[in-house]
Amino acid sequence: IDLRDNGGGLSQYGAQLVSYLSPKPFVYCENQWLTTNTLFDFMQYDIPETFNGFPRGIVKEDGGYKWKTHSILGTQNNNPNYFKGKVYVITNGRCASTSTEVLSSVRTYKLGTIVGEEAGGNYKGNTSGVTGTVVLPNTKTIVTIPLVRYEMPIDPQYKKGLKPDYVITPTIEDWLNNRDVEMDYVLKQ
Length: 189
Hints:
The structure is a single chain. By secondary structure, the protein is an alpha+beta fold. It is 17% helix and 25% strand. It contains 4 helices and 11 strands. The strands form 3 sheets. Strands 3-9-10-2-5-4 form a 6-stranded antiparallel sheet, with no helix packed on it. Strands 7-8-11 form a 3-stranded parallel sheet, with helices on both faces. Helix 1 runs parallel beside helix 2. The model has no long low-confidence stretch (mean pLDDT 93).
């Protein structure tokens, strides 16, 4: 599975991909946290359909605000036709958001071998989903702020980032000569 340069997408597609890798039901995302339950007049919001009705439905719990109705929360069923072979996942520093959710699941549930460079996202989760955009009044700089923190069910033995099991870093010569050293490594395995 080549996740290089994948900035993310809809989390339900990540959960669906993991369902084809997992031999048993799994938790894809444990919690989704927010810093507030209020929409502000000075922001324009992008609210994906998976957050239908936002901010209605935000619940105050455990000292913060949670979104509890997203389809990726709770136990997910694995696909009965899940892949039973060896899985390699190729990653690099331009992986973020949903692609790092998938990497986190692959690492936590030991669903495959991660190869390449450390991912750009965080093993513990990411901040995405609903976004708010504001134009700063003096500079007219446009700032987009992701509002939902995704909390992944992680293996506590891994403390830092999404480092691959096998680090493979292409050199400038590899790039100039169109050598795909990560894919070459995987195909040799």
